[in-house]
Amino acid sequence: MKEKRAQLKEIYTAFDADTRDQVKGCACTRGCSFCCSQAGSIDITTLEGMAIREVMDKLPKSRQKTLTKAFRKEIKLREAGKAAPCPFLMKNNACMIYEDRPFSCRRIYSAHVCSQDAPPAVSRRVMERAAQTIAALQKLDNTGYSGHLSYILYMLSVPAFLKTYTAGEFKPEEIMEFGKAHRIVINRMMG
Ligand code: SF4
Known about the structure:
Blueprint: H1 2-23, H2 34-38, E1 43-45, H3 46-57, H4 61-79, H5 103-106, H6 124-140, E2 145-148, H7 149-157, H8 159-166, H9 176-181, E3 185-186
Helix pairs in contact: 1-6, 3-7
């Protein structure tokens, strides 16, 4: 798992290096939270979820409790078909886990300032490179799954699932019902 986590960082770094020229001069600024509050789905792999859990475990207990409530609320809003801001988005519009944010957040930028009528504008080259990166992330996490952040973190909070996953076992039948209901995909079936 430690080795895979190191490879995860290498994949992020390679993407950043490869897309630097396209992203340079983009309209994104500190404090803009358009993508964090309007994102349809912030998809992550289970391996990314493990990295995020580790960051969450180091937060003060009070903040962990607030986050647990925020995730419950976000799931309720999503299931009611409403837009829900990411639970990691803070009041000052900064990301609580910025250094460890998942690839879904790293790949998004925009050539113009976004609004409801003007969603992010991303170059085709970056989109293609992002698709390759997602395939690489899913291949790296070949006993895991991909899906919206809140659902993957929920799965990892279930002791039986966590045990199976951290042991490197592959038992998709354990999550079949939950997976179908929440659009969770099996990484090794992708690409
Ligand atoms: S994890 Fe951070 S960057 Fe990603 S959507 Fe949430 S607040 Fe935004």
